[in-house]
Amino acid sequence: MKPKFERANGNLNRARFFSESGCQPSVAPDEFCYHSVVKLLLVVLITGRICGAQDQPSPFTPELLNTIRQLQQTARTSKVGYEVLEHVSDQIGPRLSGSPQEAATVDYMKSQFQQLGLKVSEEPVKVPHWVRGDERAELVSFAGMVPGAPQKIVVTALGGSVATSPQGITAPIVIVKRPEDLDTLPPDAFKGKIVLLDQAFDTQLAHAGFPHEAYVRVVRQRVGGANKAAQLGALASLVRSIGSANLRLAHTGSVIYSGDRRIPAGAISSEDADLIERLSDSGPVVMHLVLTPETLPDADSANVIADLRGSRFPEQVILVSAHLDSWDLGTGALDDGAGLGIIFQAAHAITSLHLTPLRTIRFMAWTNEEQGGRGYYKYIDDHKVDLGNHVATFDIDVGTCHPVGYTTDASARDMKMLQALTSVLQLQGAPLAQSSSQGSDLTEYGVTTFDPLVDFRDFYDYHHTAADTLDKADLGGLQDNSALVAVLAYALGAIEPRVSLK
């Protein structure tokens, strides 16, 4: 699931700023493998010294490992998850919080899990209902302009933005390269202007294998930049889109307002930000901007919960989740239709083999990740009394990126115990087990976090754009992720020892 809001994309560390899709830190393959293997060897050496004298027999018997291999093969060859992805992406389409499409996804996932024979329930959630309106921008005055020939700009409103008037606003643009520069320029530099927050996504960092780190460095200008600009008297705030490819796409995402004055907030393509920079070198640039979104009353939605009840410790829960809402520019195939497909295919593989774990495996499709995470927080509120019995949590929001292993904040003792799965996971090219301190909002309740460790370098090419569509999804990546999740979730539920935090 996701949480604290800065979530580095695996299990939400929702300390991250609103969803953002993303997964645990990733790196370029060669460097990634080298550093990860070194870390893994260190863990093995250290745990061997500390625990060697008191080693217990492995709970992974040959019979259990054989069952897990069968489960892996079933998940890697199935296409049921891709069928789920195709349905929510093509037949349902974009699933904005509070929309009819989101409601249809709740009903659809509920019916799909019921067909697997799981115990299915809905957890009602009130969610924000923001709708996109007219979106237009053009440069109407700049040095050297051909009379009567404005330059059109690719623009989109940020989620939660307030509107301009229907006629829009016309104002000069002031460029700010970093959010902190809002504090260094004279206040009158912004009054009556459109502020362009122009800090660029570090594509070199992303292509070197650290895309989420590149994302975190710039996302704050999107989330909170409009607040400071409003305090300084700006009429509107625009951000350079946060993405790793120059495809003249606008990347949306949430803006979080604070304070009494709220101004329209949008994003423009990186190419258009570059254009405005170049034109500004020769003199003032004036933009006409129209954004007419609307915030409606909160809508009814729900989390879908599907339990495979444990045979010996049914009160202990392995939570496997993905979010069912998406942004509305594309069809939400990668973010996070793929996650729905992955967790469903994992559930299908386990049930098709008629496996019954000792602990309950709970699959959850949760609502409103993109615009505040209310579904996640509702789950925490509704289950506070039994969160101490939650053993592990997975939140799957990695598109169909190929997994090379997993990350976890499990103890060194438990990581050593789970090494028995390496021989299984290496069959699908995912043998790496990386220790992480990322955690999630369930960490305070003693819940161990597991996330796929994926090659995430291209994810932000399409993140929150009109290009997040089914053609970008990879069947093999979806199958490998579902196999990884099925193997880990079932293994944690099938062994008697309970994993714990480091």
Task: Briefly say what this structure is.
This protein has 502 residues and is an alpha/beta fold.
Poorly predicted parts: 1-53
Taken as a percent bin, the fraction of beta residues is 15-25%
Please report the total strand number as a whole number: 18
**Major sheet characteristics:** 8 strands, mixed
Return the average pLDDT rounded to an integer: 90
Structural class: alpha/beta
- Our measurement of the CA-to-CA distance between the termini, rounded to an integer number of angstroms, reads 20 Å
User: Helix count?
Assistant: 13
Task: Give the oligomeric state of the chains in this entry, treating copies of one chain as homo and distinct chains as hetero.
Answer: single chain
Instruction: Please tell me what the overall shape is.
Output: elongated
Radius of gyration: 24 Å
Strand order of the largest sheet: 3-12-14-13-15-18-16-17
